[in-house]
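Narrative summary of target 7.
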Amino acid sequence: MSSAETEHSWRGPMYLTSQRRYDALIVVTNQLAGLVRANAPLLEGLMLTAVDAPDAKLRKMLLAMREHIAAGSAVHETLAKFPRFFPRYYTDLVKSGEKAGNLAESLEELEDALVRTSAFRAELRTVLAYVGGILFLELVTVTGVCLWIIPQFAKIFTSIGAVPTTKLRFLAGASGFLRSIPAAILLLAMLGVAAFLLRRGPRAFMERFRKGALVLRIPVLRTVHQKKDLAHAASVLETLLDAGVPLAEALHDAACLDINPVFAMSFRRIAGRVEQGESLKTAIDAEARVLPPSYRGLVSLGERSALLPEAFGRLAGAYRREALNAARLLLSIVPPIVLCWIGLLVYVVYSGIFEAILHLPGIVGG
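Modeled conformation, tokenized:
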């Protein structure tokens, strides 16, 4: 298989979840750093890494990388051929390391940043997924009761010639609808939509959701996404500036990250102003409607004190903590609301059942 065919077959994040992508990127970075640090033959090392790769597509990509390097391409030029796997900031940092002769150090910095980001995303995903798990289990329970238990009670009333209670009639009607053809069509339509979204990829769905800043209009989610995305951008900027990447180029790289388009456009505008000769403080103050005061203030302070990488590092740490705190707040608010809603639904279902049970002795005795 030619390298061109291999590149085309690699679909990266379209078939991998975000967490798996980060895990794979960490593994590849660790292997590359080890090879460079030990002065081991890169071609042989990539072959061994490809053999041990857990994913067939990742294996093909590593073999294609080996072909490019064997043909004389630099490491950063090779990585740039796989933008769906290696982010732009990653390639730029490797390029900077190659120019400065400290590629191993650059790869180690990347690995450290990726590990921190991966751990943060995993914890955030765990916190937010808990709510969905509760809702799913409760809905499955209630749906099961409506589909299989309620019809049995309705049959009992019908068999003895009794009139079901109002609640039981309502629940029997709901159960009948769930078992009917319209409900089946609705379910198939929902499954079709879900399959379409999964086929297009979770990231594509999230991009459509995030466009128009919809997520930034929801109070608690706004804080989670704002802090998470700005922390990621600050972490990348810290790493790039520490490696000697020019400020404007680093800002352009931040604009290419997997962050909310609102923030991406803001970083792109800041980079443009810096390229035109404006100071970072002036450029970032022009984004007051997008970037929070604490972000702009600490960056301006870092520029004045010539400690800009350190300022971005402090921002990354602080905003990660704030994003997790906001997610935990969401966890403390949403489950009670969800449980109250589910509790009301359960009350209607089970009160209808118990009311029917209480009426049965009188009906049978009569």
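DSSP finds 16 helices and no strands in the chain.
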